[in-house]
Amino acid sequence: MCRMRSHFLGIPELTRTPAVAVVIDVLRAFSVAAWAFAGGAEKIVLASSENETLELKARHPGWLALKDGAPAPGFDAFNSPAMLATHDLPGRTIVQKTTSGTVGALAVADARLLLCASFVVAGATARLLREHGAEEVTFVVTGEEGRAEEDRACAEYIGRRVESAEVDAEPYLHRARDSRWAAELAQDARRGLPGVHQDDVRLCLEADRFPFAMVARREGALMVLRSVPAPPG
Ligand SMILES: O=C(O)[C@H](CS(=O)(=O)O)OP(=O)(O)O
Ligand SMILES: [Mg+2]
């Protein structure tokens, strides 16, 4: 059994850069990112603003510009795992800008090890942390200034999975299914709001779907997220 000290902080509570950070956004940024890698995307540039996203897209016309919220001129894709599947992803670079997930990752950009995570990559993230021998980890609970239940539940699940592979995901998924944002997304999908698909919540709330973790690092002036195979469990 591996003992790891876990801290759970919202973005406004980050006063210093942790050595090891796991930034959680279940609904939906880092579920979307994981589905993008599963669909063959090569890398995801985490942008600091919509303007930066569009500037990068102008310099690299083949890149896919993705933002959350309403559609806007110049953007190609929504922050929706179901809708992303309609794009041609193999080998592509995505530039992603969202309200919570990408902001949280950029807030701890100088961490020695920076992982971005959600339920679909939770087990793989835990195995990578275990392999790294992390004794202390800061989970950045990006939603609702650290109070988003879906993000907190996922962070706690990953923390438990570092200590033991024998953890039942169901109680954690249940908390996420009952969260305020899961209910809002389901309602937005029923209303037909652009950028929200009725399958999104389901695609985000599946534990351990993918065998890779997602590591963010500076590459020149950019913060780049890549999938990294996790050791077997
Ligand atoms: O697209 C999402 O689900 C949210 C949108 S919102 O601005 O919080 O309503 O963004 P995310 O950064 O993925 O939490
Ligand atoms: Mg979120």
From TrEMBL:
E.C. numbers: 3.1.3.71
GO terms assigned for molecular function = 2-phosphosulfolactate phosphatase activity; magnesium ion binding; sulfopyruvate decarboxylase activity
Q: What class of enzyme is it?
A: hydrolase
**Cofactor(s) annotated in UniProt:** Mg(2+)
| Keywords on record | Hydrolase, Magnesium
Q: Which reaction does it catalyse?
A: (2R)-O-phospho-3-sulfolactate + H2O = (2R)-3-sulfolactate + phosphate
Spell out the SUPFAM superfamilies in the cross-references: ComB-like (SSF142823)
Q: Which family does it belong to?
A: Belongs to the ComB family.
This protein's name? Probable 2-phosphosulfolactate phosphatase
